[in-house]
Each structure stands twice: as C-alpha cells, then as structure tokens.
Write a structure and sequence with these properties.
The protein has 716 residues and is of the alpha+beta class. It is 22% helix and 35% strand. The model has no long low-confidence stretch (mean pLDDT 81).
Length: 716
C-alpha cells in the first residue's frame, strides 16, 4: 500500500514515459523507484498525446510493475507540456458615462477581456469554441479612462473605460487526453503541473531567481527554455528541434533505422569506437571522432536555435549562466557550442542532473542523470505547487477546472462558457434632444450587475471558491430608457434681475420646446428642439407697459415725397451700464438700463438732417447800411397744409417738400426788404450803383457788395 507521504508521478514525454515513486519526509524527498519505457511508435508529438490507447498501455505497464513492489496506485501527478501554452493579449472597452466604477465593475471589465483573449486563442487554432481552452492566469497591462492611461479605475468617473490584459491558456485537449490515458490505466489525476515550471522549480529555487539564468530542457522533439531574473521567471519559450535532430543526422548519413541511430547517439557518450549496422546489413566500426564530425552541422543548428531563442526571451541579452537538462543536453559538443554563441565562458554553461536538486536522495540503483530532472521536478512541484483538479457547479452544471492559483468565482464563470459581457443588464435607450442648437445625448439608466451567489450567499467575482461549491448567477436587469424633465437640463437659476430706471425688475428665462412655450416640469421626448434663453432688450421692454417712453424706442421714420426715411438720431436711446447698446443686446443679470429720451422732432430738425434750407440769404450794404436779403428755398406740407419750421412732426407723417430752383440774388431783390422813398419834388431822377459803378435792377449781386440809389435834379 502506497503511504500517504509517497508520491507517484508520471512524465509522459515524446520519446518515453517515466514512472517514479518518491517519499517525502519533511522537506526531504527520496526517490524510491523509477521505471522508464519508450514508446513503440510515435504516440506523442510535441507533448500532445496522439494515440491514447498506446500511451495508456505503457502507463499501465509501469503502474503494474511499481504496484508489485509498492502496493496499489490510484492517483498520479502529471505535467502538461509547456509548449502547449498559448498567450494572447486582448482589449475591452465599456461606456461608463460618468458613473463611478466599483471593484466588481473593474473585475467584469477584466474578465470580459480574458474571454476575448480566450476567443482569440481558439480562432488562432481554428477552433469553433473558446471553451477548448483553460485560462491558467492573466495580468493587466494597463487601464485607460477616456483614452488616458490610469493606475486604477476604481471610483473613477469618465465616459469610456478600457483594459488590456495578457492571458495564458492551456488547451483542454492536452489535459483531457492526459485524463483519458490515466483513466484507461485506472488512475486519477492527483495534481497537475506544467513541465517548464517543474524543471525550474527544483533546479532554480526562488532564492536563485534574482540571477539571470536560462534553463534549457532538451528533449526529443523540442527544447523548452525558461528565463529567471529579478526574483521571478520572466519568460518561457520553445524551439522545435532537439535530440531527434541529431538522431536524424546519424540516420541520414549512415543509412540507419531510427531506433539504431538513437542507440548510436547514446553510445557516443560512453564508447570510443562505434559499431554500426546499416539498413543494408553492412556492419562498420567508426572512431568516435569520425561520427562526431558527421553530426557537427546538426549540433550547430541545435545550438544556434537555442541561442537565438534565449536572446529573444532575454530582451536581446545573453544570460549570466545556462543550465541544461534532459536527454538531449548530453549531445557531444552542444554545451561548448552554446557557450561560444552566447559569448559565455565554458564554465557558465553546465549540464545539470538530479544531483543538483537540493534535499533529494535516490535509491542506490537509480543513477543521477539530467534525463530525470523533469520527472523528479513533476513529482515535487505537483506536491508543493499543484494544479488541483476541482469541480464547481455553475447554475447546477458541473465545471471541472485546474487550480493554478486560488480559484475565483470569475474563473469558474469563464470556464462555464458564460459570456461575461452579457451578464450585466443592458443600459436603457438613450434620448437625443437639441438644446440651444447643440445636440445632447441623454443616456438611459444603467443596467444592473448580475446577481451572483455561492452556496446561497452573495458572492463577488474575485471571491475564492472550493471543491463542490455551488455558484448561481442571474443576469442583471436591463436599465430603463432615458427619462428627463426640462428642469433637469437647466441651470438651478431660471431668472435674472435688472435695474430699469432705478427700479429692480425680475426677468424669467424664456423656454420654448418645439416652438411652443413649455413649463419646467415638461417631460422631454426624443428629438425635442429646446430653446432656453433670456430675451433681448427689444423683446423684453414691450412687456414694461407702464413706461410712457416705449414708443420712442422704435426707429423714428416719416415719409418724404412718398419715400420712407429713417432718422435714428431722433429716436430714444438705451444705455446699459452707462454705455449705449443696441436693442438686440441680450439681457444680462445685474445690468442697469437707462432711457435717453428722443430730441424734439420738428420740421426744422428734419430739414437740417436732410440738408434742406427753408430760405436763401445774402448780406450786402445798402447806402452804407448792412442788411440781409432772403428768399424762400423750400416748403414742407402735411396733408396739404404748409408747415412752419417749429411745427412738430410725428412718426409716420407723410410730408411733401417743394424746392425752389436755386438762383442768385439780383439788385431788384433789394426792394423786398427796404422801402425806397421817392422824392415828392418833381424833376428828380435816380442812379443805381454797385460798388460805385452804374448798374441795372437785373444785375447779379454778391455778398458784401455796396449798393446805392442816388437822386439828382434833372438838368434843363
């Protein structure tokens, strides 16, 4: 009977299957027994079981032999090939519209991104369903809020939130084929690990991982690489060539069957002379160096491929040291070539065997070898850091998954194939309205988060779950469509105060919806056209009916000779805060408005503005005395009545203006302004003089002329 402190592990590799029983005493491990059998045909390819019955037959054979010595075996620790891991990045964006984000909101966003990456992994492998992959872990690369990178989204408010993650997936077919092969051998999985993790766990403990070390596990079909630095494993990689590359080179050159070529390769480690029987039956002996010369090119290709992958994984730099394990690490000349290509001293590249594993002892009949590092690593890692196989019920459906880290409710929902982004209630329909010419979107109410319970109690996405826990999740209710009243769009104050001629007046906000007046409590509907503004001075003043001067504010105009003519200077004026403003100026809170009355509107004012004169005038001297001569230039009529210059004109009056033809003054015009005394004494005559020269009554006169009329007796 296998004791509870014993571990049965299986390393199911491409070339062979290794079964091992270890015993644990505290921190010490002791290898009690080990059996290895090679596959009789290509049952494995790159870590993936191709022929389950064939692999199961070898597992059964190993199990039976070990049971004969150690008692019944019912469970085994196994490893999934690290080269089967697939890494994907994904980004997901959601609209948050100002709502502060909660912890659950952020988890929902992250899990949605993981599910997107899961779908990408399936598409890259041309699979129809993302459930073909287990998520074995993810990390957040960054959060963004409204396009700007941010450290945390919790309690943040914005319009749009996004996250980008990097997630690692393990194909379910890898795990399911392991389970099927073990099942055929009447075994259950006790714990699962990953091959790259197993090897590095036992050879490079955490205390050594501050060093930049490359661990290379060279198997038959592939070479797995892990890099440590700064206290952690920073990257895993793989090259698709390994020990078989050398075997095929021997087979091609010496015409050997593949199993014979594999035997020859192993003899190169111990023999100086190699006997070879080719496929034609000829047996030939070769010196070891002759055979090595024929495989040098293949060894160089393998070293070059490993070198390039190490440099790529290590950010373009050579590591401080390289550890080589696995059967392929024993390839002659490989260690030296790899050191040369990496630019490292020979003693910085070493082949490590089971003797390098701390706190490990082995039965005397088991030889320390690099080929056993990974099988022992699987056993120890599966015990110390197992990926335990658990069953969780999601909405009464069993979900089986492996626990790489602590399992959370979110992990189970992903594994159940639930679409995370469809669990939250949809937001209600938005409403679009036009407010003062600007298109506004009013979002609907937020959808509710899903209701998640664990064993009947409320549960969070990141809550830890255990074997046989029961999760129930109900989709959140959809949000209601947008509903808003007019007052919710407006500012808190809906009126302003102005001072009109020393009196304070309150002016309400003018609100029109779809060209009709609306109240603040009006419910808006999609497509409404809303105008909310304070009136202009011209719009507001007519409401102030008690002001007697309102009519004077209208632009003053009259009709002159059938043509309407405006006289802005004869209109009243408005001053706002001491400055003259146009009546179209919008009212502003706290403004002081004053009225400047219109001037007197007379015929003389209008004539002056139209540059019309009622009369012409000229100043002359008559008989040495200064005098002004005038005559009519224009006449103003209203309704047929002649108007005088001082007569008042009203807005809208129709005026007729008659203008005399413009002509100069003549001497005769003088008689309209002076009375000429004719002498009573007979026998006198007169002389007309202009500027002391004789002239006539029709002679034009100019301003300043000296005019005279002289009488004298007629000479007999």
């Amino acid at each position: 009977m296998v004791q509870s402190n014993r571990i049965f592990s299986l390393d199911i590799g491409t070339r062979s299957v290794v079964g091992m029983i270890l015993e644990q005493e505290g921190d010490q491990f002791h290898v009690l027994d080990m059996i290895m059998y090679e596959h009789k045909k290509r049952s494995m390819l790159d870590g993936q079981i191709q022929d389950i019955p064939s692999v199961a037959a070898i597992i059964t054979k190993i199990k039976v032999e070990l049971e004969e010595k150690h008692g019944p075996l019912t469970k085994a620790c196994v490893a999934a090939a690290g080269r089967a891991l697939q890494t994907e990045t994904s980004q997901t964006t959601i609209q948050v519209a100002g709502k502060p984000m909660t912890h659950d909101d952020v988890l929902h966003l992250e899990l949605s991104a993981v599910q997107e990456a899961q779908v990408k992994a399936a598409k890259n492998q041309q699979l129809d369903q993302h459930r073909h992959y287990y998520c074995v872990g993810y990390s957040v690369l960054y959060y963004r809020l409204d396009g700007d990178e941010i450290a945390s989204l919790i309690d943040q408010q914005g319009t749009e939130a996004s996250v980008e993650i990097i997630a690692t997936f393990l194909p379910r077919v890898v795990v399911e084929s392991l389970i099927a092969a073990l099942g055929r051998a009447d075994l259950e999985i006790e714990a699962l690990t990953l091959e790259p993790i197993a090897a590095i766990h036992v050879l490079v403990p955490p205390s050594m991982r501050r060093l930049n070390i490359a661990l290379v596990d060279i198997g038959a079909g592939t070479s797995d690489i892990a890099i440590t630095n700064s206290g952690t494993v920073i990257s895993y990689g793989m090259v698709p060539i390994a020990g078989d590359e050398i075997t095929e080179a021997l087979s091609d050159h010496f015409l050997l069957d593949f199993p014979i070529a594999e035997r020859v390769k192993r003899e190169l480690e111990t023999e100086e002379t190699i006997k070879i029987t080719d496929i034609l039956g000829f047996e030939t002996s070769f010196a070891k160096n002759e055979v090595l010369d024929q495989i040098h090119e293949a060894v160089n290709r393998l070293a070059d491929a490993i070198h390039q992958e190490i440099i790529r994984l290590n950010n373009g730099n050579a590591p401080q040291a390289v550890m080589m394990v696995g059967g392929g690490s024993l390839t002659p000349g490989l260690r030296q070539l790899l050191a040369e290509k990496l630019g490292l001293a020979n003693n910085r590249v070493a082949i490590r065997g089971t003797d390098a594993i701390n706190e490990l002892t082995m039965a005397d009949e088991i030889v320390h070898a690099p080929t056993l590092v990974t099988p022992i690593g699987i056993a120890i890692t599966s015990k110390q850091r197992p990926l335990q196989y658990k069953t969780i019920y999601v909405n009464e459906q069993p979900v089986r998954l492996f626990e790489l880290n602590k399992l959370t409710a979110g992990d189970c929902l992903l594994a159940a194939g639930l679409k995370i982004n469809q669990l939250y209630g949809k937001p209600g329909l938005a409403m679009m309205v036009t407010y003062n010419g600007q298109l506004l979107t009013i979002p609907g109410k937020y959808g509710q988060p899903p209701i998640l319970t664990k064993n009947g109690q409320p549960c969070r996405f990141d809550e830890i779950v255990h074997h046989h826990d029961k999760l129930e999740i109900t989709k959140g209710e959809d949000g209601q469509s947008a509903s808003v009243q007019l007052k919710e769009l407006l500012e808190s104050t809906t009126s302003i105060q102005v001072t009109l001629n020393d009196e304070t007046v309150e002016v309400p906000l003018s609100i029109v919806v779809n060209e009709k007046e609306a109240s603040l409590s009006s419910d808006l509907v999609d497509g409404d056209l809303i105008e909310a503004r304070y009136p202009s001075i011209a719009e507001w003043l007519p409401s102030q009916q008690k002001q007697p001067w309102l009519d004077e504010l209208s632009p003053f105009s009259v009709v002159i000779n059938h043509k309407k003519t405006y006289f802005p200077s004869l209109s009243a004026k408005i001053r706002v805060n001491g400055r003259e403003e146009k009546l179209s100026q919008p009212l502003q809170d706290g403004s002081t408005i004053e009225w400047v009355p219109a001037p007197k509107r007379t015929v003389a004012n209008i004539a002056a503005l139209k540059q019309m004169s009622f009369e012409q005038s000229i100043t002359v001297f008559f008989n040495g005395k200064e005098m002004t001569l005038t005559k009519e230039a224009s006449r103003f009529y209203r309704n047929g009545d002649l108007l005088q210059p001082d007569d008042v004109v009203h807005a809208g009056d129709e005026l007729i203006v008659e203008t005399a033809q413009t002509q100069g003054f003549i001497f005769q015009d003088l008689f309209r302004h002076v009375d000429i005394a004719i002498p009573k004494q007979e026998g006198k005559t007169f002389h007309i003089l202009k500027n002391n020269e004789a002239t006539t009554f029709y002679e034009p006169i100019l301003p300043g002329d000296q005019l005279e009329i002289k009488w004298e007796m007629i000479k007999q």
